[in-house]
Amino acid sequence: MPSIVLYSKKRETERWIGQGDFRTNDESIGRHHYSSLMVALSVAFYARLSVGSRQIVEIFNILNEFMGNVFGKVPAYTTIGYWTQELGLSVYKESCSLFKDKRYALIVDESMMIGSEKLLLTLAMPAINAGSAITEKDITIVDISIAKSWNGTSIKNVLEKVADKIGHKPEYVISDNGFTVCKAVRDAGYAHHSDISHTLGMFLERVYKKEADFQELSNNVQLARFNYNMQDVAYVQPPSQRSIARFMNMSKWIDWISRMQYLYHTLRDDIKSIYAFIPHNAWPTPVPAGQFFYGFDVSQSTLYVPQGTRQDYWCCSGLGRLWRYPRV
């Protein structure tokens, strides 16, 4: 077994493990009771393992148990939490330096209310798209600002402040379609890309918001969740609908409706009566598909019908072999 040695400038504590030795740095950080190794490992466990500070205490206890008390006294979970907060503040203060010599883009959005004030969050990411969706690992927090309210001028000032800290302007800025943010980006002279989720949500809202059948379906879903939340049928209840940005988050409850439609014939009678609106709002008896696409070339198209559909779909001559549907 190879030796693992961690050197200390002042003194070393040596522990033997099998045929090798393991030496830990016993040097305390100024104004701290614990070594730099203990602090570094605690923060690394918290950041990389997605565990809480209480679990980190238990990890050190297990390591001490099997490694001859190699780490010595284990810090309290509150101490580990304090270390991670200090690290987060340090990372935030130095975040702009990561993009000094790189092409970058900004993401800006008005976020949650803190008391009577509202938070404006600005993120930075590489401007060159990697060919996949942006993930948490791609972004860095570069500014957190709080104000009583935000307008185009104040948001513009924040964007310019961030650009000054980094040292050069962003390639583009991503935001929702809020008027104040759009005005700020335009006034700052930066290229603007609208967030696709928010944009598609706006399209859905314009199409469906005032439709009577959609309102009826949405209300039925809400009532089913509200009326039967704490009863024995709650295990099939629909997911909650957000009051804000509802049309950006429709996929979960639409997917729930699709699965309920597929399983409806297997449900208990009392559950069927509660969710009778689902088959009521399902696709009606099929009609010639050609009339929906009159004037369009659909010769190379494939029609996918809702999962669980039991009816056969028929269409004009020459398209039947190209259109398919699930058999249940």
Strand content: 5-15%
- Form type: flat
Q: Would you tell me the overall average pLDDT?
A: 78
| First-to-last CA distance | 59 Å
Detailed description of the structure:
The chain has 328 residues and is of the alpha/beta class. It is 38% helix and 15% strand. The chain contains 10 helices and 8 strands. The strands form 2 sheets. It has a 5-stranded mixed beta sheet. A 3-stranded mixed beta sheet has the order 1-3-2, with no helix packed on it. A hairpin with a 2-residue loop joins strand 2 and strand 3. The longest helix is centred in the first third of the chain and has 18 residues, at 77-94. Residues 1-23, 286-292 and 306-328 have low confidence and may be disordered.
Characteristic key phrases:
15% strand, disordered N terminus, single chain, 8 strands, 5-stranded mixed beta sheet, 328 residues, alpha/beta
How are the secondary structure elements laid out?
Layout lengths: L3 E2 L6 E6 L2 E6 L10 H14 L3 H14 L10 H18 L9 E11 L2 E10 L13 E8 L4 H15 L6 E3 L3 H10 L3 E3 L1 H13 L3 H16 L23 H13 L5 H6 L2 H4 L48
Parallel strand pairs: 1-3, 4-7, 7-8
Antiparallel strand pairs: 2-3, 4-5, 5-6
Kindly summarize this structure in a few lines.
The protein is an alpha/beta fold and 328 residues long. It is built from 10 helices and 8 strands. The N terminus and C terminus are likely disordered.
